[in-house]
Protein 1
Amino acid sequence: MDLQIALLLGQDGVTNGAIYALLALALVLVFAVTRVIFIPQGEFVAFGALTLASLQAGRLPGTVWLLLAMGTAIALIEGSAAMRARRFRRLPLILLINCGAPLLLAASLLAVSPAELPLLVQVLLTLMLVVPLGPMLYRLAYQPVAEASVLALLIVSVAVHVTLTGVGLLFFGAEGSRTPAFTDVSFEVGDVVLQGQTILVIVASILLIVALYLFFERTLYGKALRATAMNRTGARLMGISGNLAGLLSFTLAGAIGAFSGVLISPITTIYYDSGFLIGLKGFVGAIIGGLASYPVAAGGAVLVGLLEAYSSFWASAFKEVIVFTLIIPVLLWRSLKTRHVEEA
């Protein structure tokens, strides 16, 4: 391996690591607020990439029907609860939010040709289709068992992951998709060519991380999430709704996953089940951070990306094994350093 190859592999590693860092931050956020190990995080990446590819191909993405089906289920649950409580004035708002918005979005996509829309509009439509799936998943799958043990919540996450993988196969098929590059610009730095797409991914990831930092530091809802992450019982005593915190954390996780899928869609071919491996590598980064530290999780995710890139050169057949083996010494070290506390 000469210096040029090492730099090229480093470029790929940092690019992948930037995506893994975003997913690691989302996993840490969701676990800190809700105690959910969000295994389906990778499905949002796959759905984001495949939805954008469907729009650019002029097809109606299957996520429209998933959004409508989940919205209808939530409307039935919330509507039944409102009727039992005799809060009939809430029914129109429940129907409008959960059924009206998805129907309006579907009608808009049927009325125009998505392939002819500007790229920015296609990306915004992709986010509008995929991001709401996050809070909807929380409302349907996790909110009813929010007080269950971490193990029970993990089992629910596995079930949700398997379900979403099957839904992805049904809606998008077994063929992979890749979108055209967002930019063809490239820069020569010495003997290394920096692709504009790579720079775009890294810059967009950094900007999103900065935006998340400002959200948690400067906004009321961000501070409420931080309070819930530090002490759920204390946050409830201070009037912070646990359900609202859960919905907000899953919304952020869905936004991060969908945005990550949009970023990597021109870089790699995405299949309906590609999200699992991508999310698992973000999970390794989150584990390095102890599912608690955002900076350490982001740094660990970048390390995972670099390790994956250089492993693909030295032992491509074992690169996944090498990456996931990294979790063993980390868990061993944390088990020796952390005092075990029984869950109440």
Note: Residues 30-58+113-273 form one domain.
Protein 2
Amino acid sequence: MKLSGVLWRGGIGLSILGSLFAFQRPFREFPGVEYSLGSIPLPADCRDKAEWAFARLMFPGGGRDDGYYPRFQGDYHYGLSLWTQDFPRADRHFSAAVRRLTRIHARSAEQVVDLDEDDAFDWPWLYAVQVGEWGFTAREGKELREYLLRGGFFMADDFHGDYEWQVFERGIRLAFPELAIQEIPKGDPIFHTVYDIDERYQLPGADHVRMGYKRPLHATGPDDGKGGHWRAIYDEKGRILVAISYNSDVGDAWEWADDPRYPARFSDLAMRLGVNYIVYAMTH
């Protein structure tokens, strides 16, 4: 389906979203685990209000008990926690692609979302990285559930292997204990909203391109972490609430999209997937 047709169908929804501009929280910078505060230049429109911004979920740690990234332990509300992996470079690269490839009124800078402050409802699309290492709480699960059942969309990315799957599932079950997690079928509209994505393959992080996959720290066998999976949680009407990229690092493919050392085919797929997910989120 052509993008113009999709956006026409979603025109009413977008106009309603526009009424929320006045309630959007202001932009705020955070330090990340890979980039220090101010090391990435701020886009000129970072404080503009928009129909869409790269809304990144902050969350407490707690998925690991082995001292992984010990120097990043602390109050996650101030950054320097694993929710800032690839941040903000991935966010801004992908936001630039959304501005270039769609007609969505998109801001060039990210928006950090704290479920404890109830500000997720201003944004139609929410993203989280390293969800195999989160310490999601019951309160956050309740807030995420309400956000999604009221029309929101959540993309969970960059976790690998059986151990991290268990940590992710334990957290997401705080939001949806009753709904199944399933593989997204090839014919699902989410793979065909803007681009027809019939071929999907594992997206390795920049540090794992040679292997083609990331071997998890808690690997349960030689094949643990191999094979990308595109899974989802659906509501009772068949709308995707949670899109899950398991054993793939979409965020890295966005982050390194401008680096010739990172294979273009991985970034190409990541960009097309992301655009499809956003348009789906804003029209379904």
Note: Strands lie at 55-57, 111-113, 126-129, 154-159, 181-183, 229-234, 240-246.
